[in-house]
Amino acid sequence: MMESLSYRLNYDCTLFKLNAQILENCKPFNCGDKDLNDFFANDALAYERDLMGKTYCWLDNTDNTHIVAMITLANAGIQTTHLKNNPKRHLNKAIPHNKRGRTYPAVLIGRLGVDISFQNSNYRIGSQLMNFIKEWFITEDNKTGCRFILVDAVNTSHTLKYYERNGFIPLFPKIEDEKEYYSIDQDEVLRTRILYFDLIDLQ
Fold first, then answer.
1. Where along the chain do its domains lie?
2. CA distance linking residue 17 with residue 117, whole number of Å
3. pLDDT over 70 (residue 3)
4. Are the beta carbons of 72 and 47 closer than 8 angstroms?
5. How many angstroms from the chain centroid is the CA of residue 5?
6. Distance of alpha carbon 123 from alpha carbon 85, whole angstroms
7. 2-202 domain in CATH 3.40.630.30?
8. Per residue in 95-122, pLDDT tens?
């Protein structure tokens, strides 16, 4: 419950779109993942210049040089043309028959990180981030239609459980089907899994 949280993004942080001044003035962001840290520090702004995604950050209100969390979002879509019957039926079941199509609009969570000093069960920053994103894309301020949230999640039990706790569903129930869809050899390790959240569930 929100009442039990000792730290709230809505009250204890301020949201900004990432820019060069923030990176220059803030302490280095450290979420415990070297690749993510490097992306946010060195690649995120280039992604925005190339129109590939926008990165947002939350600065601690008591220390505005401390980045609490960062997230990169991009436009995306779910292609149904080559989906097998089982995942396609699951995806279509909540969509009126006359509105079913080949592609459904979505937003992609490209990167997500929480500073290691805020990775505490009392804070639950990760779940607060998910709630923020879900609500953000169903408000009147959203400039485009967006039915789904997509994430290409690292294929570890810890990461998958995090997204599933927050209502995300694997697009492909079977790993074999996901490998086939992306032309990945069945003997290879599947490094990431595609999961989605249907925003209509919030209305």
1. 2-202
2. 21
3. no
4. yes
5. 22
6. 40
7. yes
8. 887 787 888 899 999 999 999 999 988 8
The position carrying tokens 């809505």 is 10
Residues 6+ away with beta carbon under 8 Å from 176: 186
Please report, for residues 79, 98, 128, 162, 195, the alpha-carbon distance to residue 159 in angstroms, rounded to integers and kept in the order given.
24, 36, 16, 5, 11
- C-alpha 23/C-alpha 14 separation (Å) is 15
Q: How far apart (Å, rounded) are the C-alpha atoms in residues 85 and 107?
A: 23
Please say whether the beta carbons of 70 and 111 come within 8 A.
Answer: yes
Q: From start to end of the chain, where are the E strands?
A: 13-17, 54-60, 63-79, 103-114, 148-154, 169-170, 192-198
CB 125 within 8 A of CB 113: no
Vertex 179 angle, CA 174 and 181, to 5°: 95
Residue carrying structure tokens 């994430």: 151
In degrees, rounded to 5, the angle at the alpha carbon of residue 195 between the alpha carbons of residues 201 and 132 is 55
Q: In whole angstroms, give the CA distance from residue 40 to residue 113.
A: 9
Both tokens assigned to 47? 């992604």
Cβ atoms 57, 32 nearer than 8 A: no
Q: Residue 46 gets which letter from DSSP?
A: H
Percent of the chain with pLDDT over 70: 98
Long-range (24+ apart) CB contacts under 8 A made by 35-41 are 36/111, 36/113, 37/113, 39/72, 39/111, 40/70, 40/72, 40/111, 40/113
